[in-house]
């Protein structure tokens, strides 16, 4: 290839330098935080990048005369170095929230002792965003929740706190075995109720913003609890999500339902068993617990029972269920219960329970059917009752979240609306599944299985 003439090389060089200067100026305009030296350094970088041509004139080069040339890595890092870190952004948010808390009546002393030292906890964000792909079947959950060890420990713990538990039961109408069962489910009888500072957990969630309004409200409630003198920041510990104490109250629930049962002027659900048990009893009382009504007795359904009626939305007197042939598992008559439903947590092949107002009160404590069933069955065993009589369908497995999404999509495609597939088994999904089961002549129990998913996905 022939060499370029000197004139051609000069014109090419001049054009290239002009283009580089334009790119340089555009980049500098977009990085207003650069210092004068950094801007000069960046100018040099653009100049040196001109295919090794050094004839481009640049005044900032003269400004760096006699200084060592900065490395490209240092120059490239300059814009990032100006960006605030997550810790700095959290500190700014904390300062802004401080004004909100002060306006809500939180004292300066509490703000200084509790909020100003709050730390950002990345692990809380990780756990909050986690959505487990695999879920446990009801029987796997209950194997742990109502294990022989937990039952034996519950009976021993009830004997230890009998006086306080009976006092709470007498005052609020919630039986002592139920209170001890909640205690066992929530913290394994006080052995594990978390070690995360509640203020840190809630401040982190409020700052992150996915559930901002809820977390800000709970954080204000937590600060109010400290301000009222019930507990100090150091001892206000709980789970990563802000649930606290031996029976895991959220701060707003604490303000509304916690009780000072030992008369020391403080509501202490961390260290005072009278307060722990009375507060739990008051929670269930306010949630609608009916003294003297059964919790969730196991029942036996008659031959030919329409399993589609085993649905929380179907409520009637226990006497009406009895007239349809429903009996207790041992064959004896049903106890008196109002607004009672038949629950089949494992579908038509598993055990059935009669659940009413007291079961729904436990659901208001923790809105998960497996949890409420765990509390009521554990309470029954602590009280000397029998274990579940009917067999669980252990040959089945719980569907994963992605499989439930596939199930929802298949039902939608067949005209049985579940809403936007999200992998969660809510009432809409179970209702749609019941309708499809009924349409193809299957027992309409609304219980998803791998076999049903396979049938739905067939062309």
Write structural notes for this entry:
With 459 residues, the protein is mostly helical. It folds into four domains: 9-76, no CATH class; 122-284, no CATH class; 298-382, no CATH class; 401-456, no CATH class. Helices cover 53% and strands 3% of the residues. It has helices at 6-29, 36-48, 59-63, 72-81, 86-103, 108-115, 122-129, 138-145, 148-160, 162-172, 176-187, 198-208, 212-228, 251-257, 273-286, 318-323, 357-365, 369-382, 401-413, 427-439, 450-456; strands spanning 196-197, 237-238, 298-300, 327-328, 341-343, 352-355. α10 (162-172) runs parallel beside α15 and α17 (357-365) crosses α18 (369-382). The chain starts with 5 loop residues before the first helix and ends with a helix.
Structural class: mainly alpha
Uncertain residue ranges: 1-79
Distance between termini?
66 Å
Tell me the overall shape: globular
- Give a short account of the largest sheet: 4 strands, antiparallel
Strand order of the largest sheet: 4-3-6-5
Average pLDDT: 86
The string of secondary-structure elements, in order, is: HHHHHHHHHHHEHHEHHEHEEEHHHHH
Subunit organisation of the chains? single chain
Task: Give the number of helices.
Answer: 21
Q: Could you say how many structural domains there are in total?
A: 4
User: How many beta-strand segments?
Assistant: 6
| Beta strand % | under 5%
Helix content: 40-55%
The Cα radius of gyration reads 33 Å
